[in-house]
What does this fold into?
Amino acid sequence: MKKGAIFGLVVIAVAIAVIISVYSSSSSYGSFNDAKKTAEELRVVGHLDKQKELYYDAAKDANYFSFYVKDKQGEECKVVYGGTKPQDFERSEQIVLTGQMVGNEFHASEILMKCPSKYTQDKIELTDVKAKKPVNI
Amino acid sequence: MDKAFQGEHLLPGHIGQIFVILSFGAALLSAISYYFATTNKNPLDKSWLWMGRIGFFLNSFSLLGVVCCLFYIIYNHYFEYHYAWAYTSKSLPVYYLVSGFWNGQEGGFLLWTFWQAVLGNVLIWRAKSWEKPVMTVIALSQVVLATMILGVEIFGTKFGSSPFLLLRNANLDAPFLSRPNYLSRLNDGQGMNPLLQNYWMVIHPPTLFLGLASVVIPFAYAIAGLWQKKYKEWIPIAIPYALFASLVLGTGVIMGSLWAYESLNFGGFWAWDPVENASIFPWLTMVGAVHVLIVFKNTGHSYFTATFLVLASFIMVLYSSFLARSGILGDTSVHSFTDLGMFWQLVIFILIFLALSIILVAIRWKELPIAKKDEETYSREFWMFVGSVFLALSCLHLILVTSIPLWNAMFGTKLAPPINLVAHYNVIQAAFALVITLLTGFTQFLKYKKTDSTRFYITTLVYFGSALLITGVIIFITVLYHLQFVFWLVMLGSIYSLLANGKILADAFKGKFKLAGSAVAHMGFALMLVGALIAAGTRSVVSKNESGTINLRGFTKEAGDVHENIMMYKNEPVTMGDYQVTYVGDSLSEPNHFYKVDYKRLDDKGKVVEEFMLKPNVQINPRMGLTPTPDTKHYLLHDLYSHITALPPISEKPMADNTGGAHGEENDDSSYDPPVVHEISIGDSIPYKNGVIVLKSLNREANLQNIPLGKNDVAIGANLEVKTDHKSYTAAPVFMIKNGNVFDFARKVDEAGLKLRLTKIKPQPDNKVKVEITVYEQPENKKPWIVMRVLDFPYINFLWSGTVIMMLGFILSIFRRNKELNVE
It folds into this structure.
């Protein structure tokens, strides 16, 4: 067999291995219900329930932030994140959480949020309607 | 008809829009003319060529016009234009107005097409016999790019998005924009995203876009070679351009990561964000292409791979622009743009050039000079070829993962990126890096055509043995052994590559100077990997926080035990790693709020060995909330990186220190604990939570500004000293009787969280005096505080210096290849 052919096979094998490893390590988007059924980490897409309390008290623990999220099925769950409250959290329209259920709480290791007003310019602020809002990082 | 709007400056926009349309028309004229100039059989007929040139000059000129008009609008704050309003504001300094220019997508395209025009002019000057076919391709690319900024509607379809769009035409949900006097109510633009207000953002985008634009040159040569059946001739000419593209693109990408390191807060220099990944697709394929182009030039092997990678690099440029701009990355990227309604236009952009490449290769397939004989196993060309293929495979992996949202859109699947995304990228890319570094090492000991295998094995093994030893030492010193095994191997590969290329560099100094370029570039690349590996792999959290944590059941390491943030009250030192850290104060320099944090490093005896101040800042932006920017202490061998992660709500805390004791009157008792009254004499002390308060003396002639005292009035000041563990402060609250009424003036010691009042004077029989001091103590959570995250990046300077060395290597190689070209 020619060396070129052997190398060609090697390349194809590596490419297939890469595809399989990407596919097998890819996760899925689920709901809190799915999270309750599995012990593994998964991603949950939902939005922040702005009616309920966002708890972050740096004096008690600078690495504890909890809030409530409604997933796409409409199920709500308390979420705990072991870090500080991300900036502009209240403004987020959509949240992608990565983590797992611990008891009745969803423990997130990563929060990805989308704040549409941040990178698109769809809101106009007029000088006469500008209000001071409470700020938090 | 059109309503009249007051105060608008429509002229620069009109002129700009005319230039936009002119640039499109001129590019089209140029492309068509160059096409006919190429196919024209009569060598004496230069009319098409001149038409093509004039078209291209006109295109360049009008792009310059577009740039001037847009800058004029931004510079003069004409917020009636959407672009100026959306990305700039009056308070921005001029150099950020410049970067506001490429803040939006339109500006990005403009920058790209502008650079491509510049490069086109260089080619008109330098390409000689290649000008006609090469410029046909470049002019075609200019045509397509021009459509991106056209902003014209034809048959109900919008083509491109113009930078001269008026705010009132931008379909914003703001009814007031239809009023004739809307401009008088629009005082300022939205301003720039604070994250982008960094000096790297002034030079990173132009560099990156020059890199992206320059990929078109080798592509154009490859197409021209296929089209004109000059299969071999284009290759040596394309090499310097391919090197140039790799150089500039690489520099641009690294500048982006420097920006991320200095102004973003994810705590690192590379986050594997889809948009970041997309920017290195073309770099990987281009660097691969450079190697196989050289192989073909020297040995006639790897023709197809060379052509393929050159063509693929340009397709990758288009693809990465599609990923960043089409909005498809929505859920997975933090800094992709949203769709401007150009999704299909971007897809068509890719398809045009993809089809052109595939069809030309297919038509010419049988004539391509593909070597029939295999390369020798012990030959440099074979392993350079292998290396290039692995660069392409590493790119393939990045594409697969980055494009997951695209696969979902195409196949209706619902895949999410891997849970531990960064680890996934790190491990798999490390495997590729291992192969590539080993190849850049031992290939140096091989010659083109054929090498004596015994000698090769001996040298290779000697160097490998030395590399093994050195790597062992490095892994031990940098505690890299905590990492997975694959990272040890990458370290080994990088050290091996450093040694092998070091030898070549030593030879270069002995006279074989032309080899210096590749040796330097390879060493730079290896050094970069060493730096990245140690810095990212052994990065440690200095602000680890075990105290005061709410116990979370089941919060394991895997689920993200990220106790990386530490809270500090003002003036209360906290021990953090080797440092004693104190948050000592604030300073405000609009719009940035700086937090002064004092770092002391103590030796065993408690003596201060080192003291410095870091000032991480937070920008208070009404539209985007608070944006923190890190501050870093740079050492030669490591960096101490700190940034603010949480603050008390701004309204509750004093903005600056200079308020002193000026506010006795205002009633802010609610922010203190209930007061405690103490009756004391001179010399007595009052204990409080963090120390003691001593009554030093009484001042019977206290005077207060603005309050003149009458004959029967009395004002007594109590000179108090507040002693905490570390510092002492003085305060002098005043008790006053004026016109028979009793007043007292409180004094605050903000640093100690105290408010003190002198509330009663009680003369005693023995001519002594007792006074009543009322102490207001701030509860802990009302005191000013910050939460910080502090990281230590060891040996990160290897990463940056490696990059600079690699760039130097590219420059040396460009000179060498260019010289070779002139000799031929």
Notes: The two ends of chain B are 66 Å apart (CA to CA). Residues 670-782 of chain B form one domain. Residues 547-561, 651-666 of chain B have pLDDT under 50 and may be disordered.
